[in-house]
Amino acid sequence: MFSYRHAFHAGSHADILKHLTLIHLVDYLQEKPGALTIVDTHAGAGIYSLKDGFAAVSKEAEGGIFRLLAYAKSNTLPESIQKYLECIQTENSSDAIDTYPGSPFILARLLRPQDRLKLFELHPKEIDILRHNIGELKQSKQIDIYAEDSFSRLKGLLPPPSRRGLVLIDPSYEDKQDYRHLETAIEEALQRFATGCYAIWYPILSRRESAALPDRMKKIAATHQRSWLHAELRVENAPGERRLQTSGMLIINPPWTLEKHLADALPTLTRVLGIGNGAQFLLKAFEA
Fold it and tell me: pTM (2 decimals)?
C-alpha cells in the first residue's frame, strides 16, 4: 500500500471529476449556517508540484488539467467547471498552473470559521509532508490530521456534533482489501449517521472487485433507504493502455442540485479530455 503516491495522478482526469464533484457538495452543504464537518479518508500530501517530482514523471496532468486550461482560453466553460478552475487557480500566482491542490487543500480553502476538516493518511512520508503543508494554511487550526486507518476510525467520528457532515472516501484500491474495508465502513457509517453525505471515488480497473463496486454501494444505500448518484468519466477506450482511462463517483445522499451540476459538466469534460471515439460518460441518480 505504501507504493502508492497521490502525486502521480495530480491534475489527472480522475482528479478533475472528483474535485469538481467535491466542490459542489461543499457549496451546497454550506448554504445552511450550521457547522459542517468534512472527513477526507485518504488525504495524501495535500498539494503537489506539477513541474517536478512524481507528477512530472507520470505527466497525467497533460491529459487532464492542462488540456482543460488550454480549451478554456478560447472557449466558454459551464459554470460548474469554471468554479473548479477558480479553486485550482487559488494555489497559483499566474495563469500558468504549476501547483495542483489535492482534496485537503481544496477543502481547507472552502472552510468557513465554524467548519472542521479531518484528514487521514497512513503513508509514513506523505503524513509528514501533509502536516507541513497544512501547517502553512491560515485554516490549520480548523484541521485535524490523523496517522491512522480511516476505515476503522471513521465510525468513531460519526455523527459529528452538528449532525452535518461530508465524507470523501478515495483509497488507492491497490490493496484488494480496500473494497471490503470500504463496504464495512459505509455500512457502519450509515448505521451511525444515515443522513451524512458520502462521496466515494473509485477507478475502473480490470478486476472483479472494481467492476462490482458501484452496484455494491448502491445495494448498501438501498438497504438503508438512501438516495444515490452515480457518475463515471471515460476518456479513452484502449485495451492495451496501462494508464487509468475511467473513474467514477458514487455519492450517497447527494444534494438535489448535483445531477444538473454534473449533467452540465460531463459532456464538456468528455469532449475536451477524450481521446478517440471511446470517450463517454455515465450519469444516473436514484431517489429513495
Answer: 0.96
- Which are the catalytic amino acids? 170
Pick the CATH number of 6-227 from 1.10.3720.10, 3.40.50.150, 3.40.50.11810, 2.40.240.20: 3.40.50.150
Taking only the tens place, the pLDDT of each residue in 103-151 is 999 999 999 999 999 999 999 999 999 999 999 999 999 999 999 999 9
Output DSSP code: residue 96. Answer: S
Amino acid at 213: L
156-174 in b/e form (b: 16+ CB < 10 A) is ebbebeeebbbbbbbbbbe
pLDDT in tens, 174-201: 888 999 999 999 999 999 999 999 999 9
C-alpha 273/C-alpha 271 separation (Å) is 6
All structural domains of the chain with their residue ranges: 6-227
Closest to 278 in 3D by CA, of 249, 230, 239, 231: 239
What's the rounded Cα separation, in Å, for the pair 51 and 41? 27
Q: State the Cα–Cα distance between residues 29 and 195, nearest whole angstrom.
A: 12
